[in-house]
Amino acid sequence: MSKVVVAILLLGVLNFKVMAAPQQQVEGHYHLTIYSDQQGLVSDIELFTKQERHEVFFGVTCSSMSPFPLVQVLLFNDDVVSEMPRFLRASYLIDGQKPKEAPKLQGILKPVDTFEEYSNKIRLELEPDKIRSLSVMNQGYAALLNSFKSGENVEITVESGAIGTQKYEFSLKGFKALIEPYESVCQ
Prior knowledge:
Blueprint: H1 3-20, E1 23-27, E2 30-36, E3 42-50, E4 56-63, E5 70-76, E6 86-94, E7 105-113, E8 118-126, H2 134-149, E9 153-160, E10 164-171, H3 175-179
Antiparallel strand pairs: 1-2, 2-3, 3-4, 4-5, 5-8, 6-7, 6-9, 7-8, 9-10
């Protein structure tokens, strides 16, 4: 192989790595990471914010490989509330009000206790009792994301007999601006 061919192949590999590197944006209180596939199309996004004085995060992750967004509250270190997995009752308020089309939620708490990480990952998902089809689920998640886009603050409440009632408040400033260009990945 000639040196020219090797150089062209190396440039191709370097260009692929540059294209595949995640992009990051910040708006308001949110941080967005954008992942692209081999064709350069957006395949996944991660949109997160953090409480100012605690290791408590709120975020939405969307993937072209999943039909529904992943909505989570992440608790780290001193903010962990359970060392056992739990099903939680969950609800939310936007700017202190219950949204008109607020879908009913449940929380699933997954504890992580490893050398690298001590956390609780609370996945918020639609309550399954009234969901009869994928289209109804899509509508519910669309309503949930639309309610996040419509306000300035979200207060998420999770509760169970074991952990009591836990409330987490997050700013929504920047959420709408960052998620709207990539909403197709969330559907």
